[in-house]
Amino acid sequence: DGGITQSPKYLFRKEGQNVTLSCEQNLNHDAMYWYRQDPGQGLRLIYYSQIVNDFQKGDIAEGYSVSREKKESFPLTVTSAQKNPTAFYLCASSIVEWRANVLTFGAGSRLTVL
Amino acid sequence: AQRVTQPEKLLSVFKGAPVELKCNYSYSGSPELFWYVQYSRQRLQLLLRHISRESIKGFTADLNKGETSFHLKKPFAQEEDSAMYYCALHNYGQNFVFGPGTRLSVLP
Questions:
Q1: For residue range A61-103, what is the model confidence (pLDDT) as tens digits?
Q2: Closest Cα in chain B, distance from residue A28 (Å)
Q3: Beta strands of chain A (E only): which ranges?
């Protein structure tokens, strides 16, 4: 069953702690993305990667870090520098092909800072 | 800069009534436009894209380059259409840009 798997589904963190959200895909997609979803603000791009070992900052990258060591995996680390980390995080992937890009989303991870 | 606006945060219509969710974009090139939908407790998923020119679940959307709009329409709303709808723009080789979303509530 192809798709994107995000884990954990729910995560609680104490202030000052770093946490890593996992995103794995078996769709053979080249591009992967991390979005933050907040009520009334839609989806805001944190980071994206179009190829292994390369990634670009999105609109709200401060306080986050990523890696892309494997095509299938794109983990997101929420660091203690992120001032307001409580949010719903969505991972997505797509192929990179002219007029064929469609995002496939994971189920999301909800992070709550205590 | 690329930008997508959706002026309505919430749109309520009665079952059987027509519905139109507005989307405007700003982009100087030839973007791809999409509508994504998120039903309650489900993943965000593609509803339709402008290059496909197809009708999905009775919804259609026409790209109007003159007005830079990509409004989503359905002639007769159903209760199962209640969801969060996001308009999105994509430029090849770059990232996707999403609007803030419109919550559609179809009342019985």
A1: 999 999 999 999 999 999 988 888 999 999 999 988 766 678 9
A2: 17
A3: 4-7, 10-13, 19-25, 31-38, 42-51, 54-57, 64-66, 76-78, 87-94, 104-105, 109-113
